[in-house]
């Protein structure tokens, strides 16, 4: 055989072997929380292609540009595949994961013995939510050592929604109207087309563009309140381009119009709510005339929004991060829920309950209010930093869960005394970029005796870590869609097996807590069951314990390939049970003071810092994940400072100018981008960009390459929200000027 013939024969043989080992695996994306189903092609244990799963009946083949970059993410040479240990000279050196865990456990043991359990903290960021076993095992570890220092990104996200409002007002057990059978949807600062994140009643997270088209065809009326003509606002029937931070005033005014024009549901209010008269009385001062002036929107639009929403008959008000991070979030969220309550936008007795979950425990559903639990706001472990702040009670399908407020985490590290945090395990999060007051967080992380990061890259936070543990990325591990279990309209679930094996010495997030627990001789418990501490349990065993008593056994989901709507009988809401029913509290303790303060804020202007900086999500990144991937990075290597052309003209700026953005707290460099979809007077920038503020890293000279961190502009203790300690992360008064060359 000639050499050429031999080569041809070898390559066709290789091709044949490849085809023989080529397989297609149904899986789902965990880049964001939408969990889009995908089909992965695997050849010789290597991922060679990723495509949308077009068979899926919920998503209809939807995926986005971020998810499609997972192929690059998994094989990127920069991705960490081995754990790293900080050396005395500051450099990192690879270390075996088992050795790293031995050393970390020994150090934690010392800290525990000397300073007690509260000194050991974990911060569970965005990607900790994406591993379906991570939170449960992290909580089990905290439980076993008795440490309350459990932090997540929820308390710097939307705690008013998940913790404060349901605690003060109570919650409707049978749920609120969903998008799919609504006549109207009132979307307050939530941009699902980019974020793929919403709550029931808003534009669904799953295949949002299709959902919007379907809604429009059905005649659903979409009202959007947003200072920016966001991607969702562009498709709205009515867009109220509000001045940031005036949402509470606007909602109070809409409530008044709905009451005055008798568009509310009198029977529902009489039967299921309390405090209606007080709410009516206290919102009267928010007149359409005054609110229109403060919010910078025409009076007619406020009337139109109230009337369309009031007409319903079905459909809910939902909120997103914009107003949840701005001024008066507890009040704003409460008023949005008051709109739903007074208009009775809840599932009634005899109606189908949208979805009670697949892997969630089965329980009868009554059309009634779960009563308010005001004691949850002031019980539990108290903050050592700020008076009257306690653990936050986050509601989950498994009951109330406690966590400490992340907005105060840096102070809990820096404040001396008993309970001072000395060790922090940071799971799939990047607090140095994500938390308010970046300089303070930098000082805090530097002050720790031990910082461990579980991260795919040397993030700004991981640059300060003593150990970085390399995790498996999603396609290298099995998971199940537990997080989204009750977010769908229909019972839907997907299990994904491991698609490709990890090639290095990667660990899973939950495994880290188990391994530490084993070395520290702890007894971990999941859902009341002891975890086998003698040898690393299979993940599926843990998932089985976590979902014990679920509507569908997890093994049934595991047995099915791909994601499916599960054929389950409809759950019909039963009549209220007189023994357990409660009332939705429309006027909880303290609301009058909050209304007063929102009223006083209607016309406040800071003359020195006359513009308002708001947050937004970007299409090509997920918080700080994405800029390391070539296609996503090619779109933008920095976070532009978006402004209206009127403001640019007034400031003598042009598109692309280098500027300085200053607040009362700090200043950052930026690059201006003209964007006439933004309300004049407003500046819109994405968070979690930039790098460490350590001057030696020269972040201020590299803003074109890595962007700027807006959290340098924010004081984490200024205007802290009551109960949640949620810092004001948006609606920040700023001034802008051209950057000195
Ligand atoms: N000013 C301002 N601040 C904000 C916000 C805002 O709008 N404005 N938004 C807030 C919100 S909503 C949130 S949720 C927080 C986000 O806060 P964080 O969750 O703390 O921040 P992320 O940037 O999402 O951090 C994700 C980290 O996980 C790593 N990672 C990526 N993939 C994986 C993986 O598969 N496994 C593991 N283990 N790690 C992985 C990334 O490299 C990155 O370092 O920020 C908050 N901060
Ligand atoms: N592509 C992408 N997707 C993401 C993320 C990402 O970084 N990138 N992050 C994920 C995370 S952590 C979260 S929490 C979700 C968040 O999901 P969303 O809450 O949908 O977040 P945004 O897309 O920023 O939409 C917030 C909207 O609020 C508007 N807004 C700002 N200030 C105000 C205000 O004062 N009042 C009103 N009414 N509106 C205001 C903004 O202009 C913006 O359009 O998205 C998730 N999905
Ligand atoms: S929307 Fe994009 S990033 Fe989110 S799960 Fe779907 S494909 Fe992944
Ligand atoms: Mo978030």
Automatic annotation (TrEMBL):
Transmembrane segments: none annotated. InterPro entries: Asp_de-COase-like_dom_sf (IPR009010), MoPterin_dinucl-bd_dom (IPR006657), Mopterin_OxRdtase (IPR006656), Mopterin_OxRdtase_4Fe-4S_dom (IPR006963), Prok_Mopterin_Oxidored (IPR050612). SMART domains: Molybdop_Fe4S4. Residues 22-78 form the 4Fe-4S Mo/W bis-MGD-type domain. Keywords: Iron, Iron-sulfur, Metal-binding. Pfam families: Molybdop_Fe4S4, Molybdopterin, Molydop_binding. The keyword Iron applies. The keyword Hydrolase does not apply. Gene3D superfamilies: 2.40.40.20, 3.40.50.740, ADC-like domains (2.20.25.90), Dimethylsulfoxide Reductase, domain 2 (3.40.228.10). GO terms for molecular function: iron-sulfur cluster binding; metal ion binding; molybdopterin cofactor binding; oxidoreductase activity. Belongs to the prokaryotic molybdopterin-containing oxidoreductase family. This is 4Fe-4S Mo/W bis-MGD-type domain-containing protein. It comes from Halioglobus maricola. The lineage of its organism: Bacteria, Pseudomonadati, Pseudomonadota, Gammaproteobacteria, Cellvibrionales.
């Amino acid at each position: 055989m000639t050499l050429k013939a031999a080569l041809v024969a070898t390559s066709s043989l290789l091709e044949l072997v490849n085809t023989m080992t080529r397989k297609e695996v149904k899986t789902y994306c965990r880049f964001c929380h939408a969990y889009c189903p995908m089909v992965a092609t695997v050849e010789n244990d290597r991922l060679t292609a990723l495509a949308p799963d077009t068979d899926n009946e919920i998503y209809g083949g939807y995926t986005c540009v971020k998810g499609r970059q997972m192929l690059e993410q998994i094989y990127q040479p920069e991705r960490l595949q081995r754990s790293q240990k900080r050396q005395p000279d500051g450099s990192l050196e690879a270390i075996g994961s088992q050795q790293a865990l031995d050393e970390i456990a020994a150090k934690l043991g010392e800290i525990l013995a000397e300073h007690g359990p509260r000194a050991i903290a974990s911060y569970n960021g965005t990607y900790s939510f994406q591993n379906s076993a991570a939170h449960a095992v992290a909580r089990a570890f905290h439980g076993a050592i008795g440490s309350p220092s459990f932090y997540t990104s929820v308390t710097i996200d939307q705690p008013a929604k998940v913790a404060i409002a349901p605690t003060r007002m109570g919650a409707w057990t049978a749920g609120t109207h969903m998008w799919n059978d609504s006549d109207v949807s009132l979307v307050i600062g939530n941009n699902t087309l980019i974020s793929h994140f919403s709550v029931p009643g808003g534009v669904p997270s799953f295949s949002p563009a299709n959902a919007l088209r379907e809604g429009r065809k059905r005649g659903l009326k979409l009202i959007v309140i947003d200072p920016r003509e966001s991607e969702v606002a562009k498709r709205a029937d009515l867009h109220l381009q509000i001045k940031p931070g005036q949402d509470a005033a606007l909602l109070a005014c809409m409530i008044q119009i709905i009451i005055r024009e008798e568009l509310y549901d009198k029977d529902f209010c009489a039967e299921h709510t309390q405090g209606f008269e007080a709410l009516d009385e206290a919102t009267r001062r928010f007149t359409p005339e005054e609110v229109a002036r403060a919010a910078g929107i025409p009076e007619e639009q406020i009337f139109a929004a109230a009337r369309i929403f009031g007409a319903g008959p079905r459909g809910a008000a939902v909120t997103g991060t914009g107003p949840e991070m701005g001024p008066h979030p507890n009040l704003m969220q409460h008023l949005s829920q008051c709109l739903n309550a007074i208009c009775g936008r809840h599932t009634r007795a005899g109606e189908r309950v949208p979805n009670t979950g697949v892997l969630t425990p089965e329980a009868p559903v009554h059309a009634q209010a779960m009563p308010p639990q005001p004691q949850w706001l002031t019980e539990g472990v108290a903050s050592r930093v700020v008076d009257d702040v306690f653990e936050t009670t986050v509601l989950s399908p498994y009951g109330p869960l406690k966590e400490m407020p992340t907005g105060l985490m840096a102070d809990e590290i820096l404040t001396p005394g008993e309970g001072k945090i000395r060790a922090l395990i940071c799971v799939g999060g990047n607090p140095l970029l994500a938390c308010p007051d970046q300089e303070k967080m930098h000082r805090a992380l530097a002050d720790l005796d031990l910082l461990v990061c579980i991260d795919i890259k040397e993030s700004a936070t991981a640059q300060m870590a003593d150990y970085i543990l390399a995790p498996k990325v999603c396609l290298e591990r099995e998971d199940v869609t537990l997080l989204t279990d009750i977010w769908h309209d229909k019972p839907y679930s997907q299990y994904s097996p491991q698609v490709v094996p990890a090639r290095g010495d990667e660990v899973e997030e939950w495994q880290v807590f188990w391994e530490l627990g084993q070395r520290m001789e702890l007894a971990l418990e999941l859902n009341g069951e002891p975890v086998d501490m003698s040898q690393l349990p299979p993940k599926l065993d843990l998932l089985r314990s976590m979902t014990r008593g679920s509507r569908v056994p997890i093994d049934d989901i595991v047995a099915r390939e791909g994601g499916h709507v599960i054929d389950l009988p409809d759950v019909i809401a039963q009549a209220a049970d007189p023994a357990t029913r409660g009332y939705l509290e429309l006027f909880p303790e303290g609301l009058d003071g909050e209304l007063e303060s929102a009223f006083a804020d209607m016309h406040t202007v800071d003359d020195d810092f006359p513009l308002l900086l708001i947050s937004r999500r970007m299409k090509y990144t997920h918080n700080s994940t994405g800029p390391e991937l070539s296609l996503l990075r090619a779109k933008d290597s920095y976070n532009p400072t978006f402004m209206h052309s009127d403001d640019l003209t007034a400031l003598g700026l042009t598109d692309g100018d280098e500027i300085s953005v200053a607040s009362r707290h700090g200043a950052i460099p930026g690059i201006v981008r003209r964007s006439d979809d933004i309300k004049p007077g407003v500046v819109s920038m994405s968070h979690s960009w930039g790098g460490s503020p350590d001057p030696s890293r020269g972040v201020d000279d590299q803003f074109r390459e890595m962007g700027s961190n807006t959290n340098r502009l924010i004081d984490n203790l200024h205007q802290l929200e009551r109960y949640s300690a949620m810092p004001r992360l948006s609606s920040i008064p700023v001034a802008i000027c051209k950057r000195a060359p």
